[in-house]
What does this fold into?
Amino acid sequence: MILGAHVSIAGGVALAPQRASACTCETFQIFTKNQLQWHAPPLSKDEITGFKREVQQYRLTPGTVHAAYLVNLSAAEPDLLAKSRQCMATDLGKTERLGIPWLVVHPGAHRGQGSAKGIDVAASSLDYIFRLSRTQHTSILLETTTGAGTVLGGTFEELAAIRERCHFPDRVGFCIDTCHIFGAGYDIRTAEGYATTVQKMDDVLGLDNVHAFHLNDSKGALSSTVDRHAEIGQGEIGLEAFRLFVTDRHFANVPGILETPGGDPAFARNLALLRSLLPSPPPTEL
Ligand SMILES: [Zn+2]
Ligand SMILES: [Zn+2]
It folds into this structure.
């Protein structure tokens, strides 16, 4: 796994790579704007050039952009749906111009329409976003959720169904959040539970379509649908699951992004802990 964290863009996107590097990231995730606002000014040419230069300077692998939390791709309210689609199209354009391959989004909440209807609306939203954004390369990753209330994405099947109904499946993949799948009932705490979960992931999503991980321990218990992130090894999931994920050859080239609490110093500490789980290289012979 290529390890990194979600870093701030305070002061401009071009400052994010340095922040990521300072906490020992190999890759990183950003928001393109304040995640609690709908609108933001477009990125200037200078900001984009500066960002790309800094990514190279610090030898980082471009990772992911996370969409705004306001977005609901399966909203029942026409106004919210229109705003969500517009916001995502803008974000997808920005993601592509920044040279970042993936835009991560939660699939949304159907708010009582039922999950079948919600899945259809989310798939139509993806079609609309790809067409409106006029992007060519950047893909959207649907993130797993804990499935609380009417939120879609608590099962791999729901995410797969959205991708299947979209007209651009080649540009839709998945982001697995360890805290969310655990809260949704996927027990990854033991080698057996991990193997069963990854098999399911392969059967339903296809491991080739899993392009990012959010590595978070969980303050909530298994199947609690609680979405509260804990530092690695300090939550209900525990270290063994993370050892299995970071050493799994299937995910060797996939970004694993921390969204743990505690800010940048905690990221450095959590990354060091994750790296300590990797097998040490064999001693070189003299
Ligand atoms: Zn996440
Ligand atoms: Zn979360």
